[in-house]
Design brief:
- The chain has 178 residues and is an alpha+beta fold.
- A hairpin with a 6-residue loop joins strand 1 and strand 2.
- It has helices at 27-33, 65-78, 87-98, 110-118, 167-176, and strands at 40-46, 53-59, 104-107, 121-125, 132-136.
Length: 178
Amino acid sequence: MALFGPAPAPDPPHPRPQPRLPGPLTAEALARVFAQCVDFTRRELAVAGGETRLELFYLAGMVRMERVSDYVLRPLAQDGALAGLPVEQLWEKMAAGALYSLGVKEVADLDAGAAALIDGDCLLLYPGGGKALAFNVGTEEKRGISEPEEEVSLKGPKDSFVENLRTNPSLVRRHLKA
C-alpha cells in the first residue's frame, strides 16, 4: 500500500513489440522487407575503383539524390585514401567523416535499418552484413496530406495528392512511418 493511497497500476506494455523486424541486418533481409516497394533501391559500389565492395540502400522518394551522389557516392569513388584499406579501417574512416554527411549513425539490426530507410537515410552495408552506416540525406518534401480544394467529397477520405508519382509515396511514408 502506498503512503497516500493505493499503489498506481503498472504501466501497460509498449504497443509495438521490440524489435518488430527481428534478425540480422543483411542485404537479403532488407530486400525481403522492401520486396513490394518500387522505390527501394539497392546498388553495389566499388570503393575507389578497388576490390572492396559495399552495398548502398535507399528509398528513391525519401532521399535527395544530389546528396547521395555528392556526400556518399563521389567520396567513395574518388577518394584515393580509402582505396586498399582493410575493411575495418575503411569502416572507421567512413564513420568518422570520410564521407561528407553531417548526420551518420551506425545501425546494427534489421529493425533499425528499416526505420532509417523510412526516415530518409541511405544505408551503406558492412561487407558480410551485420551492421550499416545510416547517412542523413533525406528530402525536405514534407507537405501534409490535405483535403482537396477543387473536388468536394461528401463521404469517404478527404486526402488528396497533387505531386508527381515519386513524391506521393514518400508523403504517405512520412505520414504513416511504414
